[in-house]
Amino acid sequence: MTTPQSIHGIWTARWTFILAATGSAVGLGNIWKFPYMTGVNGGAAFVLVYLLCITAIGIPVMLAEILLGRRGRASPINTMHKLAEEAGATKFWGGIGWMGALAGMLILSFYSVVAGWAVAYTWLTAQGAFTGESAEQVSTTFGNLLANPRELVWWHTLFMAMTLSVVVHGIHKGLERAVRILMPLLFLMLLGLLVYAMTQDAFGQSLAFMFAVDFSKLSGDSILSALGHSFFTLSLGMGAIMAYGAYMARGQNLAKTVVTIGVLDTVVALMAGLVIFTIVFQNGLEPAAGPSLMFQTLPLAFAKMPGGALIGTVFFLLVVFAAWTSAISLGEPVVAWAVESTRLTRLQAALIVGVIAWTLGVGCALAFNLWSDVKFSVGNLFSLNFFDLLDKLTTNIMLPLGGLLICIFVGWVMDRAIVRAEADLHHPQLYRVWSFLVQIVAPVGILVVMLNPLLQ
Ligand code: PFF
Q1: Nearest to 151, CA basis, from 188, 189, 194, 119
Q2: Which of 110, 213, 239, 384 could cross-link with 364 by S-S, CB 3.0 to 4.6 Å?
């Protein structure tokens, strides 16, 4: 195969790939989802399994995804077609790209609804809505927001429009500029909040909740959630990182790159968890509150600290930005495919993707009010509202399945010499470890965890 070029361009510098991929990875998954999942799944044992999944499965799979993107130099759908052809394998491997494109749109739909909550909270905090409020009042405010379909749809629409406006402009003018400033700022703000949390009495309790492991709290279901979340938080299994890899220059050290992204993502999640659980315990709140957790805890801290309205506004704004840089990467694979393979322009493609994701998102918003009684169930395996259905279907099934197929393709289907050259891991030992993880550990781990609920 001759060295192909991406028609969408190349990152302007090495570190812009790291920034963009970190922008994709760090998002609501870290600040909103990780803490509430830790709460729902009983704390430290979940955190431990999650960390294991990130190290033994997530980071190696990320390297595999980037490698595929950089070799294919196209959208995940076309990359997988090309590379399957190159390997002399069936074109069904293109299915990885298709499933990823679908997962991206599904995730974007519910993601935009939650990001909309963060936009609403930026607005509310800026108006001083939480100043001096009690835990009950803060939680009532959130309940009122959820109960109001019109408002939810409005904030969701606003966020979706923000996302599309960047996707339309391609990678240079929109994305790179945004992540360069916003990601460091978010990190600093979280650090500030962590320092605040450390001054509170409940910090020790928060530490214990997150790090004192008690395996009796671990169920098969929470192991699957930890695995699914490690894919979700690193943006793996659906082609987002593969799409970004297609715009990556040669010669960049992949091992260092993926470890950097993995560490940054994990540190942000752990910091957010520590901050949120400190506020939970300090105020006698419920750690297992679920998706509302972040919105019922952080405003309380801002209500109490001096200058809280200002700090809170900036913080929620940064959460919105973190969600924004992730949402963009959810739309990119399918939009890039449409630009390559149909006659649509980037604008038209982004609009179509946006309308589909927006419509599904409206269904997710209504799941909190008008459609709260509408449940989707299969036997007695599960019974979920539309929002939870999309979340579980993508996070617990589609992303790990995508990851599994990527491991099999890179580990067993592609030519070993090509994989070795593309991975470009300078130490033979490192290459051997990575190969072992991608060929054996990750696929077996994913299979066991995914099949486990069916076997019980
Ligand atoms: N990684 C993002 C987060 O943690 O918020 C969410 C996400 C983005 C998932 C892109 C999947 C993806 F492809």
Answers
A1: 119
A2: 110
Residue 79 CA from chain centroid, whole number: 22
Cβ neighbors of 96 (< 8 A, separation 6 or more) are 76, 80, 239, 402, 405, 406, 409
**Residue-wise pLDDT tens digits, 156-172:** 999 999 999 888 887 66
Residue 307 banded pLDDT, cuts 50, 70, 90: confident
Ligand 1 centre to CA of 27 (Å) is 7
Q: CB within 6 Å of ligand 1 — which residues?
A: 24-25, 27-30, 104, 107, 232-233, 235, 238, 240, 326, 329-330
Q: How far apart are CA 36 and CA 417, in angstroms?
A: 43
Tell me the chain's radius of gyration from C-alpha atoms: 21
Alpha-carbon distance of 407 to 260, in angstroms, equals 21
Cβ–Cβ < 8 Å for 255, 430? yes
Cβ neighbours of 177 (radius 10 Å): 13
What are the tens digits of pLDDT across the range 27-52?
999 999 999 999 999 999 999 999 99
What is the 23 CA–ligand 1 centroid distance (Å)?
A: 9
Nearest-atom number in ligand 1 for the CA of 233 is 4
Residue ID of nearest Cα to ligand 1 atom 11: 235
For the whole model, what pTM was predicted? 0.94
The distance between the two most distant Cα atoms of the chain, rounded to a whole number of Å, is 66
Q: What is the mean pLDDT of the chain?
A: 92
Note the pLDDT of residue 455: 63
Q: Which of 313, 277, 242, 287 is closest to 76 using CA atoms?
A: 242
Distance in angstroms (rounded) separating the CA atoms of residues 33 and 292: 10
Ligand 1 centre from 24 Cα, in Å?
A: 6
Query: Which of ligand 1's atoms lies nearest the C-alpha of 329?
Result: 10
Stretch 75-102: mean pLDDT: 96
Which residue among 232, 393, 396 has the greatest number of ligand 1 atoms within 8 angstroms of its CB, and so is best to mutate?
Answer: 232
Per-domain residue ranges of the chain: 14-455
Among 26, 107, 186, 231, which is best to mutate for testing ligand 1, by the most ligand atoms less than 8 A from CB?
A: 107
Is domain 14-455 annotated with CATH 3.90.75?
no
Tens digit of each residue's pLDDT (9 = 90 or more) over 393-450: 999 999 999 999 999 999 999 999 999 999 989 889 999 999 999 999 999 999 998 8
